[in-house]
Amino acid sequence: KNEVEQSPQNLTAQEGEFITINCSYSVGISALHWLQQHPGGGIVSLFMLSSGKKKHGRLIATINIQEKHSSLHITASHPRDSAVYICAVRGETSGSRLTFGEGTQLTVNP
Amino acid sequence: DGGITQSPKYLFRKEGQNVTLSCEQNLNHDAMYWYRQDPGQGLRLIYYSQIVNDFQKGDIAEGYSVSREKKESFPLTVTSAQKNPTAFYLCASSIVTAQPQHFGDGTRLSIL
Prior knowledge:
The complex is a heterodimer of chains A (about 110) and B (about 110).
Chain A: E1 4-7, E2 10-14, E3 19-25, E4 29-37, E5 43-49, E6 52-56, E7 59-64, E8 69-74, E9 83-91, E10 98-100, E11 104-109
Parallel strand pairs in A: 2-11
Antiparallel strand pairs in A: 1-3, 3-8, 4-5, 4-9, 6-7, 7-8, 9-10, 9-11
Chain B: E1 4-7, E2 10-13, E3 19-25, E4 31-37, E5 44-51, E6 54-57, E7 64-66, E8 76-78, E9 87-94, E10 102-103, E11 107-111
Parallel strand pairs in B: 2-11
Antiparallel strand pairs in B: 1-3, 3-8, 4-5, 4-9, 5-6, 7-8, 9-10, 9-11
């Protein structure tokens, strides 16, 4: 079992839909990251969380430390949101090292 | 603009050859990282460096080597000992080890 599990692996939505991507992890962490990878391969950091909730534009990230679970929400989805969304955790004892989930491929159709 | 530059974007290697992937950053970041990405798998850490002239092995360091002679540069050499080098390679950097990492656009390596 991977230390970081994401669901779903693939997600197709219609423009305007509310989207949720889930991330569960099995180790104690000091921080959780949500990343976005576009078709060309480049990766952008969206959020770094250690507790609670963060919001940036139409993106919202939440984390529940007790349940070892985080969600990434996209409101009013748009075709330009189509990308791979990756969850990564920094373990309490792993220093700077991140452990990555396999990613969720999101496709938003017009 | 500040950022991370990886070159080349595409790289082809013949069997038995060593190749070096370039990673340069002008963000004044102390920490730099190399990851490998294979289809259907999460990114895996190859090597990382927290300071000039120092680096540590990640989870899949066998068949790879790095150097960190300058703060701005962290080249990765894929040696002939790496039996399955075809993959997408990403370089990243961060201010300190606990901060978000900034990623380059990646290099796709293929074997001829």
